[in-house]
Amino acid sequence: MLKTFLKGGVHPAANKLSADKTIEILPLPKIVVIPISQHIGAPAKVLVTKGDKVKVGQRIAESGGFVSANIHSSVSGTVFKIDNVIDTSGYKKPCVIINVEGDEWDENIDKSKELKKDFTLSSEEIIKKINEAGIVGLGGATFPSHVKLSIPKGKKAEVLIINGVECEPYLTADHRLMLEKGEEILVGTKILMKALNVDKAFIGIENNKPDAINYFIELVKNFEGIQVVPLKVKYPQGGEKQLIKAVTKREVPSGGLPIDVGAVVHNVGTAFAVYEAIQKNKPLFERVVTVTGKSVKTPLNLLVRIGTSTIDLINIAGGVPENTGKIVSGGPMMGKAIVNTDVPITKGSSGVLLFEEKESKRQESQNCIRCGKCVSVCPMGIEPYLLMNLVENEMWDEVEKYHALDCIECGSCMFTCPSQRPLLDYIRLGKSTVNNIKRSRKK
């Protein structure tokens, strides 16, 4: 019987239009704009200045603290300037802008395609190299991977879970990566197991990817301690807490972290990046991105250098259709609309989704009819309708009391609301305000 999480969940149309499209390498751009904050935590500190020559894989910004990540050049060329540029958040952020001149890689990077299975590094050495390579969670959260692997005192990792769910509609980057880089992902999984000192790992894959499930079931026969877990199709199965519940039946407590139940979760893209960092000395400077939409001429999965302009991806997929009403970075449930097509691709860019005009417009919000659908579909068991009312009335203590901070921002409540109420918008505002209040208390 297929496993799944029990609390809440919805079933949006999959629309995996690019599932059968093999990963293509996007041609080098003429210029890249590389944000120095592509991760949760402190922004990195710029190491280069205007006029500096850089190579592919060279560190151009170093982590600004423990919860931070190094940034590497994705191209070779000359630093044009350091400037503030609008990123996927819609705000101007510091970026390193590089004019591309050829494609000269750092000499320490192994560019061969040969699979390397054996490794001898200790747990501490693996975590250090992952830190140096600037690897973050590639499922979209962009949490620095070395932090997740550094288990706090008093806690113990018991199981590693590799997230191959990709439950967001439209997106297929992880699916294609599993089919085309399966062995590398499994070597990366073994490396992560060594870093955590655990002897078992599970790879969760939803049942709408039977080719990936069957492929990995065959592959894991040669990798001791790794098991494939087919999962029932239900959104948001790819959420850390939902995936842990589905795979292990353990429930992360309110306000808790996966390590509180002995679990650590990493995305399949992260596992592949770990393989490349440890076995090929390759920092994280490129990733697979899905370009898709019902009107897109040629939906694609592209291997893209970080800092490439979004319009370059759209153009190779056939350009912006005339009926486009909105362009989203990520998927339709948790992605964010971008303000223009010059926004650079970052480590957290899993997809570029073009919505038709008729799909992109929100319907007018109506009064709540107390149907309770938002409560029944919430995978965290909170009450979205109530939290929206509390935020509207600025009752911040109550917002915290009723677990707004447990919201994973999956959008299931808004998806199912018959009154088209902007529930998640208000909950996000509530979370932000409560977090600011909590920080001011500590000060």
Q: Summary?
A:
This protein has 443 residues and is α/β, with parallel strands linked by helices. It has 14 helices and 17 strands. The mean pLDDT is 96.
Mean pLDDT: 96
Anisotropy-based shape:
globular
Cross-sheet strand order for the largest sheet: 1-14-13-17-15-16
In helices, the fraction of residues equals: 25-40%
CATH superfamily of one domain: NADH-ubiquinone oxidoreductase 51kDa subunit
Core attributes:
443 residues, alpha/beta, Rossmann fold, four-stranded antiparallel sheet
Topology readout:
Elements: E1 23-25, E2 31-35, E3 45-46, E4 53-54, E5 59-62, E6 71-72, E7 77-86, E8 92-100, H1 123-132, H2 145-149, E9 159-163, H3 173-180, H4 182-196, E10 201-206, H5 210-219, E11 226-231, H6 240-248, E12 263-267, H7 268-280, E13 286-292, E14 300-305, H8 310-316, E15 324-329, E16 336-337, E17 351-356, H9 357-360, H10 373-377, H11 384-392, H12 396-401, H13 412-416, H14 423-442
Parallel strand pairs: 1-14, 9-10, 9-12, 10-11, 13-17
Antiparallel strand pairs: 2-8, 3-5, 4-7, 5-6, 7-8, 13-14, 15-16, 15-17
Helix pairs in contact: 1-4, 4-7, 11-14
